[in-house]
């Protein structure tokens, strides 16, 4: 996806693009920015110069990665930088602002892992001639719903990311939308299954319509699922595992499938969910058979990932 060409900073194009990516994804490593913005450069030095230009202008700041000290810098936009990007009007304003404390906080590795999952889609789209750019996924967008099992509560589903992807095969173009959840093996499998419940409940949730004004009886319009106000078809759910050996992650996939199969509520849902490791996603790409369906037959397949979903699904 081409980048917007105008920005208020007066900086070079690569620096402007880096600022846009930082605004969208909040905390990004130098190497991730290099892969997303300047992959045509063989080394990261060019991107490093752009980032230091942003920092000198007061638009960006950086900290060292917790797990590796100062050997890798992680970047975010300052308030001045965020305002400069938002002033152009090409990206949605964000209430969230990164701080040095948050950048060094316990969610640092999780934020970077979500970025790695998105970068894998971008890099393989580039290789395959599909369309998915650094701004085609958005982190943590709230989806409000209610669940019959928890009456009276307004619940909130917040995917780690929502990713848009245009798959092309000859003249056929298919727009795909994914909910992405990244699990660094820091939660129990039971907690991961609860997330599946939340997606299934949101899939089923239809807000009760208001009674029609001007009518004598209590006639109401037919209820429409909440997700239809946002998406032409319900997004597939992709669960990406990292933070452990491939052997342990394989066992985790089997445990989640077993737990989901024994749960009547999940067995009855039409939710489409697949699970893989971040290493498999990066190495082979999303359109190889790396995603194991969480529900139903357990053979990894790419067909369910790229096949169109009807609006009724």
Quickly describe the structure.
By secondary structure, the chain is an alpha+beta fold.
Overview of the structural elements:
The protein is of the alpha+beta class. It is 37% helix and 19% strand. The chain has eleven helices and eleven strands. The chain has helices spanning 13-25, 30-37, 45-56, 79-88, 100-103, 108-128, 189-204, 246-261, 264-267, 278-284, 303-306; strands at residues 28-29, 60-65, 69-77, 137-139, 143-145, 155-157, 161-169, 172-183, 236-241, 273-277, 292-293. The longest helix has 21 residues, at 108-128. The radius of gyration is 21 Å and the shape is globular. It starts with 12 loop residues before the first helix and ends in a 7-residue tail after the last helix. The model is unreliable at 1-9 and 308-313 (pLDDT under 50).
Low-pLDDT parts are 1-9, 308-313
Strand residues, percent: 15-25%
What is the 3D form?
Answer: globular
Mean pLDDT: 87
What is the end-to-end distance?
A: 28 Å
Percent in helix: 25-40%
Count all strands and give the number: 11
Separate helix tally: 11
């Amino acid at each position: 996806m081409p980048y917007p060409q105008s920005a208020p900073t007066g900086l070079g194009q690569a620096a402007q693009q880096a600022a846009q990516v930082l605004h969208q994804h909040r905390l990004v490593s130098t190497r991730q920015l290099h892969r997303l913005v300047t992959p045509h450069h063989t080394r990261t030095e060019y991107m490093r110069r752009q980032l230091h230009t942003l920092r000198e202008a007061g638009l960006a700041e950086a900290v060292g990665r917790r797990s590796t000290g100062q050997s890798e810098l992680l970047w975010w936009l300052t308030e001045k930088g965020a305002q400069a990007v938002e002033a152009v009007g090409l990206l949605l304003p964000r209430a969230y602002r990164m701080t040095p404390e948050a950048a060094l906080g316990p969610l640092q590795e999780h934020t970077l892992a979500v970025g790695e999952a998105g970068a894998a889609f971008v890099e393989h789209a580039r290789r395959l001639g599909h369309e998915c750019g650094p701004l085609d996924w958005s982190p943590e967008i709230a989806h409000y719903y209610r669940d019959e099992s928890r009456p009276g509560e307004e619940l909130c589903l917040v995917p780690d990311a929502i990713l848009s992807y245009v798959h092309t095969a000859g003249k056929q173009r298919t727009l795909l939308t994914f909910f992405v959840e990244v699990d660094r093996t820091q939660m129990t499998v039971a907690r991961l299954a609860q997330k599946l419940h939340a997606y299934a409940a949101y899939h089923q949730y239809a807000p009760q319509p208001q009674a029609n004004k001007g009518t004598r009886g209590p006639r109401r319009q037919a209820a429409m699922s909440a997700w239809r106000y946002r998406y032409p078809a319900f997004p597939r759910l992709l669960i990406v595992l990292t933070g452990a050996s491939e052997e342990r992650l394989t066992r985790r996939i089997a445990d989640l499938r077993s737990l989901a199969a024994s749960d009547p509520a999940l067995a009855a849902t039409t939710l489409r969910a697949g699970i893989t490791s971040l290493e498999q996603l990066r190495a082979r790409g999303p359109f190889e058979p790396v995603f194991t369906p969480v529900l139903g037959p357990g053979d990894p397949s790419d067909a369910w990932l790229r096949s169109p979903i009807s609006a009724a699904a």
